[in-house]
Every structure is written in C-alpha cells, then in structure tokens.
Design goal:
Low-confidence stretches: 116-122
Order of helices and strands: EEEEEEHEHHEE
Helix content: 25-40%
Structural class: alpha+beta
Distance between the termini: 29 Å
Number of strands: 9
Strand content: 15-25%
Mean pLDDT: 83
Radius of gyration: 15 Å
Strand order of the largest sheet: 3-4-5-6
Shape: globular
Number of helices: 3
Length: 122
C-alpha cells in the first residue's frame, strides 16, 4: 500500500498491521496469539475476533459483524461462530470469558480481563 492516511484521523495506514489488545495479538491469515499461544482459526472465526479486537471493548452487533464479513455469513449465524471461537479459546483457558454478549442489543464485545475477575479498560 503506498503512503496513505486515514481521511478521518490522518493516521498513517500500513498494509500488514498486527492488532494487539490485552492478552491477544491478531495477525493476518488466520493466525493469532492468545496468552502467548499461537492459534490458527478458520477465516470467518478469525475475522470475527479481528473485528472484536479492533473495536477495543466497544460492542458490535451481529448485523455489523455480518457486514464486516462481506455478507459471507448471515447475522443470525454470527452467534454460532462466536460460540465456536469461545470453545477454541476455552481449550487454552477453561475460564475464558472475554467475549461478552451484550443482552438486548444482539451484540458482542471483547472485554480484556487481566487475572481473575479484574477488568482492564484500554
């Protein structure tokens, strides 16, 4: 990507950027690191995690996530994919609860928690 800047904030845009938030680093091609462990997720699951991490704790609706996936998945199916992502993370951390369902809004957010029950906001 040639030198481009965001039209909204003026931030320099780069092509291959890692996204880090708390105990997770998201890379391209389905690879991410959670609590230092490398994981490879299928494309849709990886893109959902990427969207949640990029939102930095803000809630994203199922319909927004479906749009993020370029219409490859219906909004009604997002909860199934989120369940699969949660299961994958629970293989590393059985107490994983960082993907939070926002009741009444059909939305999800990534809530980084450092240690047991201690919530950290960024």
């Amino acid at each position: 990507m040639p030198n481009q800047t965001c039209p909204h904030c003026g931030e320099q845009l780069v092509e291959d950027t890692k996204i880090a938030y708390g105990n997770i680093i998201v890379e391209d091609r389905g690879v991410l690191y959670f609590q230092g462990e490398r994981l490879e997720l299928p494309r849709v699951q990886h893109q959902i995690v990427e969207a949640l991490i990029a939102a930095r704790g803000r809630a994203l609706t199922r319909s927004y996530l479906a749009e993020w996936l370029d219409g490859d998945v219906f909004a009604q199916s997002i909860s199934v994919y989120v369940g699969r992502v949660r299961s994958t993370f629970r293989e590393i951390d059985p107490d994983f609860d960082q993907i939070v369902s926002v009741r009444g809004f059909a939305a999800y957010k990534w809530e980084f928690k450092s240690g047991r029950g201690h919530r950290v906001t960024h």
